[in-house]
Structures are given as structure tokens and as C-alpha cells.
Specification:
The chain is an all-alpha fold. It is built from 9 helices and no strands.
Amino acid sequence: MVALCLFCLPGVAGAQEFSLSLGEDGSLAGLSVQLFLLVGLISFAPGLIIMATCFPFIVTVLSILRQAIGLQQSPPNMLIVSLALVLTYYVMDPVFTQAWTDGLQPMMQDQIDAETAISEVMEPFRVFMINRADPETFTRMAELRADTLPAGVSPGEAPLSVLIPSFLLSEISNAFQIGFLIFLPFLIIDLVVAAILMSMGMMMVPPALVSLPFKLAFFAVADGWTLISEALVRGYM
């Protein structure tokens, strides 16, 4: 059987045809550069979700909320990130749809070139970031690039290298402000429990351990996850 297979192998190989396309004019270097750019763009997509969407704001607020309740590993990080991604998709769906309609779909149908498609894809994200970026933060970031940017440049004319850091810093700052407001009710519960324990002479009992069930009950009765998620989403509507 082995000998028969070896005997038939040259005939099968001779009957097959093999062709390799190297792009226009047989340029292997051009094809290599295109493949390199494509792989780089695919690897850049997760970073784009983090940098140019509401994901940093939402995941920071949810992390502060978990810390305020006093839970270290519950919900786990994977669940926090998953919830942040779901809420990000809910908020950014119009932006994703516009980027697909104006940029990716025409490029796949050979109606526009890749350079125009990238510009059209980034335009909805640019508008979103401009509406959320703090003007003072943008001004400070633009001043650091005063040697390469014209004086008084507006966010709509600024490059992404200036707009994205301004947007990220603004989102993180807003997330900490919201986190402070979320922290206050749980801090009050901790203070009340600590005062009661001190008045009872139970100084050896950790107040955080006693207040944890009360904070969980308060958060569950108030339907906290729904309220927090709804408030985060409404902030972008």
C-alpha cells in the first residue's frame, strides 16, 4: 500500500497547478507592506475601543463602585470588564454603525480607497471625542504641541495625537468625580457603623466587616446596578 501511494504521488503532484500572486507588477515588497499594515490595524482595534469610546469612563466608575461597596474580588474583573464592554456597545452603536456605513462598507465594495475609508471611519469617533473632551484639558495638551500646531487650533482641526489624550484625560477625570458621588452613601454607612461599635465598646470588631452586609442590602434594595448603568448611559445620550 505504501509503495502504491509513493508510485501515484508524482503523477498527482504533476497534475496540480500552483500559482502565487505578488500583487501588481509582481511587487513582493508592496504586498508585504500591505499585509504588515493590515495586521497592525487589526491589532490596533482593541486599543481603539479603549481610547476612542466611553469604555474608560464606564470601567473606571464600575471599579470605584466595587471598591466603595467593600468587595475586593466580587464581581470579578472579567465581569466588570464585560459589563463595561456591553454598556460601551450600547452607547457607541450609532458611532459604529456610521463608521461601517461611511467607511468600511464602501471600501469593501471598492467604492473608495483605503486612505479615504480610514478617514471616514475615524470621523464619527472624532465627533464623539470632541463632544466629550474638556476644553481646558484640550488647550493644555495643545500647548504642549505648540511647536507643531498653529495657535488657537480647535478640537475639530487637531490631530488624533492631541485629541485622543485630551479625551482620555477628560473621561478619567469625569469618572473620578462620579466615583466620589457614588462613594459618599457607602462612606456614611461605614461611619455610622463605626460610631455605633465605638459607643458599644466593641473596638476590636472591624467596622468594615460589620458594615459590609448593610452596604450590600442597601445596594440591592436600591437596585444599584440598574441605576448606575442607566445613569452612565444617560450621560452620553
